């Protein structure tokens, strides 16, 4: 059995303190079209964690496709995802200089470098 290549991704962004309740509420019922776009883009095992003392959102996911940039472009072109980002981007503050929102040329979330991994025994 062939196992697809997996790219692990970790990203951070700042959540505006005034938006915490709304952010939690919208993520309790993510729009089905947004999830479908992620699935079509080969994104799996996606989670977002919150670190309240620094207002950090920390997202982790795995990409199992073969062309990450092309798949992310398709996500950015998805109309329902674009509507979702219009709602959620307003709740966030990017750390990336010049960032104007999700799906643009300049990344909205900051991607973090992996410095350690332990996969355990296969």
TrEMBL record:
Q: Which InterPro entries match?
A: Dimeric_a/b-barrel, Rham/fucose_mutarotase
Pfam families, per the entry: rhaM
Q: Name one GO molecular function term.
A: racemase and epimerase activity, acting on carbohydrates and derivatives
Q: Which domain of life is it from?
A: Eukaryota
UniProt name for this protein: Rhamnose mutarotase
């Amino acid at each position: 059995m062939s196992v697809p290549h997996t790219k692990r991704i970790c990203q951070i962004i700042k959540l505006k303190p005034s938006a915490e309740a709304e952010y939690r509420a919208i993520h309790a019922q993510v729009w089905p079209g947004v999830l479908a776009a992620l699935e079509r883009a080969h994104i799996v095992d996606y989670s977002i964690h919150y670190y309240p003392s620094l207002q950090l959102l920390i997202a982790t996911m795995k990409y199992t496709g073969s062309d990450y940039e092309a798949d992310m472009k398709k996500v950015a072109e998805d109309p329902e995802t674009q509507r979702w980002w219009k709602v959620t981007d307003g709740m966030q503050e990017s750390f990336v200089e010049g960032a104007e929102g999700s799906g643009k040329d300049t990344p909205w979330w900051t991607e973090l470098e992996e410095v350690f991994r332990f996969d355990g025994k296969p």
